[in-house]
Amino acid sequence: MSRRRTSSQCALSVRNRWVDRTGAQAADLLTLASKHSDPTTCPIASIPVDVILGNIVPFIHYDQPVRNCIFVCGGRSSRVMDSNRYLSTVEVYDDYSKRWSRVPTMRSKRVGAAAMAVGDHLYVVGGYRVHPDQPLGCVEVYDPWVNRWKKIRSSMQVPRFGHSLALVGNRYLYAIGGDSQRQLVSEVEVFDTYTNEWLQNPELKISLPRPLAGGRVVEKNGLLYIVGGDVGSSPLQFSDLIY
Questions:
Q1: pTM to 2 decimals?
Q2: InterPro entries, per this entry (predicted)?
Q3: CA angle 151, 184, 230 (to 5 degrees)
Q4: Of 208, 220, 233, 242, nearest to 167 (Cα)?
Q5: What span, in angstroms and rounded, lies between the C-alpha atoms of 31 and 60?
Q6: Which of the residues 136, 161, 206, 211 has the least number of beta carbons within 10 Å of its own beta carbon?
């Protein structure tokens, strides 16, 4: 018996249209057929590649909507500290179709937040929406399959902005350092994307060797490497250490 899925089993409805979960594979096959097949035996091969890429592929809604895209979330539209210039909008660059588009706005305006893709979802953590002295500890998650943001009830113990965010084990989000009420922080908090909870176990309490904001973090073989960042000195100085 054949176990091949029908097209209806490979698709789902999003915003009153159908999205094909296997669209990326279909687009790749179209392009390969156009480039390498014999037009006398393969009708698709007679379609020029530029027609496939310019007129067909943009209309295929492929199956990795977060991992194949660049998201720009929130921020502010002016250097002036004016909450009316703070943004909740989200713009997306689709590298497959080479186009920018907008998705629904976040539930909160956010400046200085950190974001991370986990599977097919996008998590946005922290930031501030009124004033830097009032940072946020909450999390929002974007689900591209229903095109909707969801606010998570659990919040960080130390609200912050300007922090680093790292993913470990494709499950745990580490919020590292940052700025909280005009003070740099060294605390590291861990969010479990399976349970949607911040871990509160005292045995898991983690801190950096010194307070730090704006560092860059990379995960490698289960270890987190933090490079650079603001250490809060006056005049402004940046760390040149790797933790």
A1: 0.73
A2: Kelch-BTB_domain-containing, Kelch-typ_b-propeller, Kelch_1
A3: 105
A4: 220
A5: 13
A6: 206
